Each structure stands twice: as C-alpha cells, then as structure tokens.
Amino acid sequence: MLRRSILAIALITISLSAPLLAQAQDAPRYMVASANPHATKAGLEIMRQGGNAVDAAIAVQAVLTLVEPQSSGIGGGAFLLLHDQESGDIIAYDGREVAPAGATEALFLKEDGTPEKKSDVIPGGRSVGVPGVMRMLALAHRENGRLPWQVLFEPAIKLASEGFTISPRFHFLVNMYKDKVRPDNFLNYFYDDKGEALPVGHLLKNPALADTLSRIAAEGAEVMYRGELAEAIVSAVNNSPVNPGTLSLADLSRYEAKKRDAVCAPYREYKICGMPPPSSGGIAIVQILNLLEGFNLGKLDPNSAAAANLFLEAARLAYADRATHLGDTDFVHVPVKGLVDTDYLEGRSKMIKPGEVMEDAPAGSPPGSTMAYVTMDPQEIPATSHFSIVDDEGNVVAMTTTIESAYGSRLMVHGFLLNNQLTDFTFVPKSETGPVANRVEPGKRPLSSMSPTIVYDELGRPIITIGSPGGPLIISFVAKTLLGLLDWDMTMQEAVARPNLFPYGKIAIIEKDSALSAHQSTLEALGYGVREGNLTSGLHGITITYDEDGHRHLDGGADPRREGTAQGE
What we know:
The protein has helices at residues 2-12, 37-48, 53-67, 118-121, 133-144, 154-162, 168-176, 184-190, 207-219, 228-238, 249-254, 281-292, 305-325, 336-339, 342-349, 474-486, 492-497, 520-526; strands at 31-34, 77-83, 90-95, 164-165, 203-204, 258-260, 263-267, 270-274, 384-390, 396-402, 412-413, 416-417, 430-431, 434-435, 453-456, 462-466, 501-504, 507-511, 529-533, 540-546, 552-558, 565-568. The protein is α+β, with helices and mostly antiparallel strands and 569 residues long. β11 (412-413) and β12 (416-417) form a beta hairpin. The termini are far apart.
C-alpha cells in the first residue's frame, strides 16, 4: 500500500509551469535562487544592506511563509547546509519537527491495528509535529548572522501588511483544495464568501502574519515556543475539530535545533556534501553518484535511454538501502560511514550492467550495520520548498524547508499554517522481520528525503548549491541535476531543466512530454515498465566558478516547472 502511494505521488505530482523569470548569468557578488520572486527579492534586499547568506535565508523563509504557504513556513521544519567561508567548514543545521511526548507507535493505527489512510489523518492536530524551523534559524543566526535579527523580517512584514498579488500557481493550488477539510480561518483567508478560491491578481494581505512576524522580530524565535503564541499553537492542535492531537507547551519549550556532521564523500574530483539523518537525502545522493562513478557518463547523451538506464539502476540500489537502514540516529543505529564507504559502493556498483534491468535491487550490508531495520517508505507528499544563496564573502547556503503536505495540517494560527510532519513516519511500527526504523516514537524526528547539497572542487572551494522539493523523488531530482553539472558540463539552468526520472522497482517513471518520452519503447525493451508523470521538481541552485585571479562568478537556475527566480548582483 505504501509503495503504491509513492507511485501515485510520482504520477500525479502537481505541475503548473511558469515562464522562467529573470536569470542572472554572471553575478559577481551575491545571488539568491528561490521558489518565488518575492522571496528572491527579499534575500537580495538583505544582502544589499550588508547581510550574509544566513541573514538572507531568514528573510527568504519569512516571505515564503506568506507567498508559498502550501509548501513551507514558520510552522514547519527545515534543513540548512552552510559553507562558512572564513573557517572553510560545512555545517548541517537540523530543524526537523519532532513527535510530541504523547505520540505513540499507535498514533496512526486503527483499533484493529491496521494503518489509517494518510489522507484521513493529514488534516487536524494529530499530524502536527513540534515546529523546528525558527529555532534552527535562530541558532544559525546566533552563530553566523551579520545583521540584527529584527531587520531580517522587515521585507516579509511589509509584504504581509501591504499585500501581494495572487499568482496563477497560488490560485491553482488553493482551488485544488476547495473541497478538502479546512477550518474556518483557512477558508476565510484563501477563499471568498462563496467558497471560491481567490482569483489571480487579487491583492492578498495577511495582517495576522505581519503581527506574528513583528513579534518574532522584536522578541526572538522563542515567541514560537513559549507564551501566548505557543499557547495558541497548542490550543489549535488539541482542540482541532478533526483529529485532535496531544501537543503540549512542554513539547514546544523542550524542542532543540541540532548541529550535525554533514555527509561528505568524493565523486570523481569533487566532494559532495549533504544532510545526514534524519534526512536520507545526503546518503542516497552520494550513493547514486558513486554507484555511477565507474561508468563514462560524459560519452553518453544525457537524455539517452542508455544514460537513463544507468541512472535508474543506481537509484534503485540507493533507494533500497534507504528503505532498510535509514531513520533518526537519535533513536536507531544508522551505519552512515558504511553506507557511503567507497569499497562498499564499488561492490554494489558491479550489480549494474549497462543495457540490463536488475530483476531485484536489494539493500546491501554496509560496514558497521548491526541489523537491517525495515524502514518502509513514508508517504511523503511533495509540498516543500528549496532555496540556494551565495553572499559576497563566499558563504553558501542550501536550505530545504517544508510543512509536509500541501497546506500542512491546514490548521492556521495567527496567520501561518502548522505542519503535518508526523505523517512522514511509517504508520506500521513492526513487520514480520522486526521493528520499523521510522516508526513513531515520542521526541523522534521522522525520516526525510530533503537533500540540500553543496559541492566542492579539488581545491576545496564550493562550486554548487542545489536542492529541491518532491518528497521521496527529491533524491532523484537532485542527483540527476548534479550529474548534468558534473558529468555533462551543463549550466545550472540546463541541468535544472533536464528531464526528471524516478525508479519505482522495475517501473521507470519519466517526465511527461520530455526528451525521455522518445525512448519509452527502448526502455520497455530493456525490461522496464514505463510510465509518464509530471515529476514537478522545484530545483533552485547556483554554480560558482573562479577565474585565474580567483574572482567568483555566480550562475543561477530556477526550475521552469514552478514560478521561482534566480537573481544576483
């Protein structure tokens, strides 16, 4: 059932393409690539005032809360990967939501022990995890910020007060949810008095969010975790008319944003760095690339059936390891080093035969593994956002942020939506072979596929920042983009726009009406079942090149499948 759900996600992922807006092909100082022009503008505004990449990230997130509420916001969680230019260090900040103390393994089970349907438990309080993004951003700012905290919220506060024009994508998504379960304040904000989605071009204001952000700006991130706003969050969760939850003030106050060691491993002459667990993204992307290192991809047409075949087989092996060994390392043992071990991956790579399709792509036994858990794929819905930032000092941010499903739990508090992140846990806690690594436990962070990534050259200089939304498909989206950049020498825009593909067992899901569509019969002849889907990524990235004098040149890319921009100065 869970695997069928992921197939459905891949096939019906929302697509509403917008023309690609202003691209800065050679910005020497700083750049922002984000999912919305207002958010990109806010990040640039902060850097014009002397802010750095972390400062800009806070401004971008605040604006996304307003203009892209279906994807992320201050009521959700995020992962932030930072290259600190002064120290040369890469820092992984974990702002993933956690399960409240009242959550048990039976959280999403019926009385007979069978799992509930995800769509039935998304709306309401039971799916809400403790929001983590604001404490994470506060931690990152305390350690790395340049401008005062309160300045960073000014663009979002102004935009929420004065209003922004509803875009076609905003309207389209709100309209999709007009028959879903929604509380009154959600209805009153997104719909007119006849229950219709507010039209394209409507000037939408959010004074409640402006007030919330003003309080956070003045008093700090702790406003979200203690006091009146925290009480309002708890009340909304526990008094939800559908699926009430158990979130408490104690759950909020004890939340801790964490610094973790980034997952870094070589690929050809480069170093790839990504998020460690509870994200599966960093490990899986390193695996896909290393499984392909022994093949001369550069001699293949990047959009050929031969290239697709190699990618799909490598991704199948990586997803198999993900589904067996990954979970929150604060609760389960994950052999992180073993999973990205060069010798281990070289042995796995021998299973890939050009022009063939593995009958089965099993998980491996990496060094350091003590047992094989059964993760079982969580039913991640691709409603997330990613942005990349490079500042004038050379600091680099890759941040992926989410409230999980489109519009999260649909519970709205003081102008922002609360997440439904707990549905990223696997609903069934045990299998015939043992415990499920991603089962619900109090204080645990659900497994994620979010994959903010930074790549370094052979001199240790950052050259790429990239990431995407897309639920479990994120891993494939980011990996195919990196291959375009590193093996086929594409520009960021070319690599982002390159057709997406995703393996579902022996089914090859390819982007509908793309260059891969012409190879459907060839892929079928190899042994794949082929299906076309929208595969709507939201890739936003920046490449950094250096001339002979060491001067930097920034090239940005924004996914043409969405409405984002990449701009710099």
